[in-house]
């Protein structure tokens, strides 16, 4: 499929040409031309009339299959552009949905993509009905008014069915999540801009080999893997990548997936340290905006500057300091900014930061466990080692064990007939 790309920049909005071209390639388009314009939005065509004429000549000359705008188009603008160019015109978010459709493999991901696509289509169908009443065009995709109205009803019915199915998926995931907490897992969500290296980091943490390609939106399904950090059992979940200006309809459609971030104990925000500072700053702030929309900024957060092997130590330190300045200026809840190379397994700073954060979690703390029956000591020790970390053991008529334990497992320990006393932060 051949495409012409269009980028309009203004004081309020702007798109990275490199990112837009990467989106086009990820969707499988051959980019035959890209035109750019700096101006405020034209209400009728998005771009100015002079640039529209330039675009019309390019379409006549290059005969692309589509014209793709890096900006969001209103339904009216999309129709006006189609009328002038006589070629299919889509915008950035339709392009993203095309990529999502190619990447969706599980039933849940396919349902989420379908829901987002239908939500996007609703205003287009409404615009088609309005145009019919004005006598301006024949329906939506060649349908008449009655067929178009029936199609709108079908869209709304289908959206309702998908939401119910996704609600069931969400309920099942909540049951699994609670069980994981009960058996002593700390939950970490890997979040961040698309193609920052989250899947590669998950591989490095879990020492597994999950698909990790150097392209946008490789991960649409949540992938959860376990690993041990000291004596602590941890579950890390890879989530769908963010993108600048992620629209509400995509956030809503992927709510059951993005909820993994909301329910996590710790957010691990991954950035690509090898990119120019301007790009890192833009992607960091875009990610923070998504987390704010998800109401997840109250979670403990670690920012991981990944791919440090692709730049210098001095460059990474400078970028880390700049992020810390932004964090301080804006009052963002970030515990630490660390540098890593997921590809090379260089995660020492990250492990240290995670250890620090885990010890501050309400669900994880220091306890003194008193075992009065000697024959139960091995069983109690084995359970603690499985769900926490033994700090000190004092043997005697009664065995006293001081340990870090996930609070969800206290009930399991008490069933063994032991006495458990939580220690104060000062004692810890």
TrEMBL record:
Residues annotated as domain Hflx-type G: 186-362
Subcellular location(s) of the protein: Cytoplasm
Position of the signal peptide: none
Residues given in the record as Mg(2+) binding sites: 199, 219
Molecular function GO terms recorded: GTP binding; GTPase activity; metal ion binding; ribosome binding
PROSITE patterns, per the entry: G_HFLX (PS51705)
Keyword Cytoplasm assigned: yes
Xref: InterPro entries: G_HFLX_dom, GTP-bd, GTP-bd_M, GTPase_HflX, GTPase_HflX_N, GTPase_HflX_N_sf, P-loop_NTPase, Small_GTP-bd
Residues that bind GTP: 192-199, 217-221, 238-241, 306-309, 341-343
Keywords: Cytoplasm, GTP-binding, Magnesium, Metal-binding, Nucleotide-binding
Cofactor list: Mg(2+)
CC terms in the record's Gene Ontology section: cytoplasm
Family: Belongs to the TRAFAC class OBG-HflX-like GTPase superfamily. HflX GTPase family.
Role according to the record: GTPase that associates with the 50S ribosomal subunit and may have a role during protein synthesis or ribosome biogenesis.
HAMAP family according to UniProt: GTPase_HflX
Quaternary context: Monomer. Associates with the 50S ribosomal subunit.
Protein name as catalogued: GTPase HflX
Origin species: Thermococcus siculi
Top-level taxonomy: Archaea, Methanobacteriati, Methanobacteriota, Thermococci, Thermococcales
Encoding gene per record: hflX
């Amino acid at each position: 499929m051949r495409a012409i790309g269009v980028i309009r920049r203004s004081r309020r909005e702007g798109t990275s040409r490199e990112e837009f071209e990467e989106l086009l390639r990820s969707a499988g388009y051959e980019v035959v031309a890209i035109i750019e314009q700096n101006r405020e939005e034209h209400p009728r065509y998005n771009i100015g009339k002079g640039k529209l004429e330039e675009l019309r000549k390019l379409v006549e000359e290059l005969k692309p299959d589509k014209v793709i705008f890096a900006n969001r188009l209103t339904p009216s603008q999309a129709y006006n552009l189609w009328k002038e160019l006589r070629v299919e015109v889509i915008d950035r978010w339709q392009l993203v949905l095309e990529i999502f459709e190619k990447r969706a493999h599980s039933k849940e991901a396919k349902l989420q993509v379908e829901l987002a696509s239908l939500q996007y289509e609703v205003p287009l169908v409404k615009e088609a009905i309005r145009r019919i009443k004005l006598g301006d065009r024949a329906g939506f995709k060649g349908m008449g008014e009655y067929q178009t109205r029936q199609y709108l009803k079908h869209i709304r019915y289908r959206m309702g069915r998908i939401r119910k199915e996704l609600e069931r998926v969400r309920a099942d995931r909540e049951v699994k999540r609670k069980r994981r907490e009960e058996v002593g897992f700390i939950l970490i969500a890997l979040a961040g801009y698309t193609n920052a290296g989250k899947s590669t980091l998950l591989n490095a943490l879990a020492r597994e080999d999950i698909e990790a390609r150097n392209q946008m939106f490789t991960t649409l399904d949540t992938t959860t893997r376990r690993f041990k950090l000291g004596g602590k059992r941890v579950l890390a979940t890879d989530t769908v990548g963010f993108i600048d200006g992620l629209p509400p309809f995509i956030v809503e459609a992927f709510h059951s997936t993005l909820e993994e971030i909301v329910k996590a104990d710790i957010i691990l925000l991954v950035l690509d340290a090898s990119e120019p500072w301007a790009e890192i700053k833009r992607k960091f702030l875009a990610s923070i905006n998504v987390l704010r929309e998800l109401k997840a900024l109250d979670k403990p957060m670690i920012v991981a500057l990944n791919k440090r092997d692709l730049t210098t130590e001095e460059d990474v330190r400078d970028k880390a300091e700049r992020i810390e300045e932004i964090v301080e200026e804006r009052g963002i809840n970030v515990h630490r900014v660390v540098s890593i190379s997921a590809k090379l397994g260089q995660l020492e700073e990250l492990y240290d930061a995670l250890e620090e954060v885990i010890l501050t979690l309400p669900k994880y703390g220091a306890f003194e466990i008193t075992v009065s029956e000697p024959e139960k000591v091995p069983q109690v020790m084995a359970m603690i080692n499985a769900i926490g970390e033994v700090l000190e053991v004092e043997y005697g008529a009664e065995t006293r064990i001081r340990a870090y334990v996930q609070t969800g497992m206290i009930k399991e320990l008490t069933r063994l007939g032991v006495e458990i006393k939580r220690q104060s932060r000062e004692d810890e």
